[in-house]
Amino acid sequence: MARDLPDHVNGNGCLSTRIRITIMDIYGLFPHFKLNRPLNERERATQLDQKVRLDFETDQLMPDLKVIEINSHYLETVDKYYSSKGYLSFIASVIGFMMLGAYLKMITSSILTISSNENILEEILGLLVLGIIFVPTGIWMLFLLKKEWFAWTHYPIRFDRKNQLVHAHRHDGSVFSARWDEIFFTTAAMYGSDCYISGHVLAEDRVTIVDTFCLPASHNSIPALKAHWEFVRRYMEEGPEGMQSRISFCLPIAEKKESYGFSFFYLMTLYNGAPILLLPFLAPLAFLFSIPRYIGILTSRRPVWSDEIQAQCRTEKDDPYRLDASMNPKSLWGTFFGKTQKP
């Protein structure tokens, strides 16, 4: 008997109404995952077995609006940082530029009034004290800003079903590949109940973690995450049949950077499932965060798979299971509001 669809999962196959963005959404991007360490007890206890079919019907599987393309050969998704891209850079840019800007203004003001200032020594001392606080904080914020600006637009993951391989981009732009059945998948938690799904590549001892990537979804609902895991697991283990029906649209970033219009639209999908009366209040938030997100897109490089990986992932033009952005509904906004159906 199939389990009930998790409350957090809506009919579009995504986690609904997730307004808050937590440290879980950027953990791994900053701070980095700890490598060259043994699996811990919690990871062992929450392992997800590639061979174990979870009790979900096909219409309960959750791609979570993270699919770039799918076909008989491979499934390509984004990373777990993609949906929240723009939030970290918004906070970092506002705090960083305010700190450095305010301190620069104080220095400029002191220089302009130095001839008439009778308490110049006290003012210089005050500037030095404030500098100890303002300058390091501002520089630290600019360091965080670099995690989304002048970096990579996204970090794609390709699940190669035919060759039973997984290819993933690291944060430095390099790529690693691992056999699907040798990856240790597990849920992980940090800062309360927020969870995500990690794929650990292990050393020959099958204990030491040498590389880590994450499935795209993160949430505080384990059942919802398992619906996402089962979407990927079932594709790799059982094939692409029925998967297309769970994908509302594909992300149009396989061969180009996303447009500003799509950046704003995608941030609005984070509020999918919210009462429609709240959307006028949520739209300004999405607009606010879409600006640093799009700056990050414009200033970052687009990841490209190597010729070797592309040669391993050849697809047929008449593949009945092929789905990519060229086949998206004409109105993505209509899809978001649930007023249109896929052609």
Order of helices and strands: EHEEEHHEEEEEEHHHHH
Q: pLDDT average, as an integer? A: 88
Residue stretches low in confidence (pLDDT < 50, at least 5 long) are 16-20, 339-343
Overall radius of gyration: 23 Å
Number of helices: 8
InterPro entries: DUF6708
Pfam families: DUF6708
Transmembrane segments: 87-104, 124-145, 264-291
Keywords: Membrane, Transmembrane, Transmembrane helix
Furnish the topology, listing elements before pairings.
Blueprint: E1 37-38, H1 41-45, E2 47-48, E3 67-70, E4 74-77, H2 87-112, H3 120-145, E5 157-160, E6 165-169, E7 175-179, E8 184-189, E9 195-202, E10 208-219, H4 222-238, H5 260-269, H6 279-299, H7 307-312, H8 332-336
Antiparallel strand pairs: 1-10, 2-8, 3-4, 4-5, 5-6, 6-7, 8-9, 9-10
Helix pairs in contact: 2-3, 2-6, 5-6
Brief rundown of the structure:
With 343 residues, the protein is an alpha+beta fold. It is built from eight helices and ten strands.
List keywords for this structure.
disordered C terminus; 343 residues; five-stranded antiparallel β-sheet; single chain; 8 helices; alpha+beta
